[in-house]
Every structure is written in C-alpha cells, then in structure tokens.
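Record type: monomer structure entry
Structure origin: computed from sequence
Chain ID: A
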Amino acid sequence: MNRDNGGVRVLYSFPHKLGADRICYTAWQQVNGIAAAGGDLLVFPGGVTRPVPGGVKVKTTLGRGKIRVPYKVLGSMRAFALHDWIVSRRLERMAGKVDIVHTWPLGALRTLKMAAKLGIPTVLERPNAHTRFAYEVVDRECRRLGVILPSEHEHAYNEEVLRIEEMEYREAYRLLCPSDFVVRTFVEQGCNREKLVRHQYGFDESVYYPSLRPVVPNAGLKMLYVGGCAPRKGLHYALEAWLQSPARETGSFLIAGEFVPSYADKLTPMLADPSVKVLGFRNDVSELMRESDVLVLPTIEEGSALVTHEARGCGCVLLVSDAAGAICQHMDNALVHPVGDVNALAVHITMLDANRSLLTRLRSASLSTVAEISWTSAGRRLLGVYRETIAKYAEDHRIGRD
C-alpha cells in the first residue's frame, strides 16, 4: 500500500464471501465505491464471489486458489474467528502501511485490538441497530404475535453473538452507522455519541432506474413489499393498514419474499384477501418496483434497508416506518409513520390512492435527488468519514500525550 496517488490507505476486513447476497453484496458495493472515490484499498475477505475493480488488492483469508474453508463444516462463528486471527496477524506486519482499518461484526475483535496496539484508527460497520436492542424488540413482537422464530434465524436471541459484538463495540474507535435510527439505538444502550459516525448505503443505478410510464389517474394503487417475511419487518402492520384502506377495493398489494412458516400461518386470513398477492422469492425485483406505485416497509428495527434506496431509484414512493433507516423526508419525497402505527399507515395509503397529484409530486421529488444515494455517492461519503476519523484519532492521541 502506498500514498503515490494521495489516497487513504484502507485495510478492509470482511469475514464473509465478498459479493454474495445481503451484507456480502453491501460490502462489495462499498469496496467499489471506496475505490471509485480514490481510496487505496487492501481487502481481506473470507472469500470472493464477484470481481472487484482493478487496483483493489484482495487477499482472501479462508481459501487459497481453488481450495476453500467450508463455512458450514467449520461453523460460521469459528470461521469468523479464524478470519479475524489471520487478519490481525497480517496487520501486525503492516505497521506504518495502513491509515485506517474497516471491520465487520463477528470477525473483528482481534483485529481491532491489534490496530489499537499499533496506533491505527478503526471503524466497525454496523449494518443493523444495536444487537441487544434488535433482539429485545423482535422478541417482544414475536411474543405479542405468538410467533416462534427458528433457532437459527438471525434475529433469534444468541448470547454468544451478543457477547462478541458488544466487545467489538467497545474495542472499535468508531462505529459506522448507516442511519439516524441506528445511532439512536446505540445512544439508548449507553454508547458515547462521539463514538458514532454516520455514513450511508446506496443502490446500483444500472439496475434500479425508473420507468417512463405516466401515473394513470383512475388505476388502482399498486403497493409492493420486498424482503424477508418475518415479524421484524412489520409486514403484519402493512397488511392491517392495507385492509383498512379503501385502496384495497381497486388496488393490489404485492408481497415478494419468503415467509417464516409460523408467521405465514399467523397472517393467513389477511393474506387470503383477493387484493393481496403473495409472489414468494423473486429475482426480478427492479421490474416489480418499476411497475409499482409505492414500496411499503413498516419495519420495527433496521439498519438502513437497501430496498428503500433501490425503490427510490425505480421511482417508487416510500411508505416507511421511522425505524426503516430510509433516506427520505416525510411529505417531501415520502410518507413516514411511527413504528407500529397502523392507523397512520392506513391514512398514508389512502392519501396516495385518493390523491394522485400527491403521489406524482412525491415521486418527482424523490427522483430529483436520487443520485445522492447511489453507491458512488456512498463511497465518496465513506472516504470522507475515513479522513475525518484519521484526523480525529490523531488529535485525540496528541491531546492524550500532552
């Protein structure tokens, strides 16, 4: 790693398969965005499933050549710990060659400690709310609904995961929060506000772009939900609100995603309504978005749902809870309701169904600023966060020495 181009030298540690789905896709897009913004990147992922830009150096930790360490055989937690150990050992030999270390949860503890020992600032990605908060609110909602999550579900309470992540929170110099909601959950759990720094996620403009079709005044409202169908996402609130609204009489509510079985059983009566169409898992989400008027996400806790960025890119108006981490403003380019407020959401659905000029205005306002939430924009913002963090770390340690 060098400073020939004046770039920030970033060691990016990711314990999963870079470029796979969900957070693996997020990390891959982050790498692309940082590289495009001019960062000097050395990436240590567990594995790689998609190519990265030229100039980005990649050294996998859980495989060499065609030989791969199987996560399922080793167990995810042991695989993450092995990744962390390998990265920390590599970092030890790189003193003076790294300006900042970017880590991800469950594979960061040794690396964070080694960086602190070497005097290198660190950031820990927080793709979701504080884990203790998330466990607690999801557990309450499941109990209220009478739904039991599978033991392996990512939001089923796991003491080991919580213990490790809370140690990582303490060791990291800063926590990267993709939304104000995430910041709030950490503050509520007692985290120092100065430790929390905002960045953002994005969307792929080559995939998620708007349709040129005009809004048809007398057509029924087409509302779309995309994501895992589990209590955390609040789909039950969306269904209740939809069935309360006159929009159901001429419109349709499309649900794209796989259900937790016990949750599907609980929602069966509402899912049976003729205006509700359960599509299951889909790989044509961008096209569904272009064909829909609004995207609904009444989630009870979130990081910053990528689906909200992608929907805006396709021209969908957002109907989201204030826990969705969506980058939008109520009545400016979206409609935002308090978590769990079915009546407010029903009013919002009815408003957009009855007032197509409002729908058109919100859509136009959303599309006018959508470039600000692309992955390219996210990369520039993250590089700025790196620079500011490096400067603050140097100042903190200067004051400490004085």
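Annotation 1: The chain has two domains: 9-202+375-401, 222-373.
Annotation 2: The first helix runs from residue 23 to 37.
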